[in-house]
Amino acid sequence: MEDYLTTGSKIHLTPLSPKKEQIQIKDIAHALSFMTRANGQFPEFYSVGQHSIHCLEEAKARGLSKRVQLACLLHDGSEAYMADIIRPIKKHLPGYLEIEAGLQGAIYEKYLKTPLTEKEAEQVKSVDDDLLYHEFFHYMHEALFDEKPELKSNPEFITEEFAVVEKRFLERFYEIASE
Q: Are 82 and 99 in contact (CB under 8 A)?
């Protein structure tokens, strides 16, 4: 048996050497709507899909480029194919990080056409980290950083149905990708 994942679209994706045609936005939206943030430790369900949509909305509110907005929506796309590992452990797993980077790079290559510039990558990381802070503060009453980052958007941290999140994710993707 080959090393592949069968996606919701019945595509055999090879995570160690993904091909563009194996990567489908519908599979990403579907999987991320079912995946929980914080390894399931929040007191209620809040999905990676919701987080990704909030990241796009924050990037838009900050006036960042459409390309960065799309990158914010897709920044956790690799998790749709290989799950997620919490940051304190992930940083000690160089093999995982290498595979994740390759898969995420393939997703960006398919949908953004070229790799993120250093500035774009910093903007995506800033949005991601700022949302992470507010998610933890909302759900766990824990301040992850010394200074509270300001959000320009107003995300709702609520439990949403999987199908609703998947639909919103795809709507936002097609909205941004078609512009």
A: yes
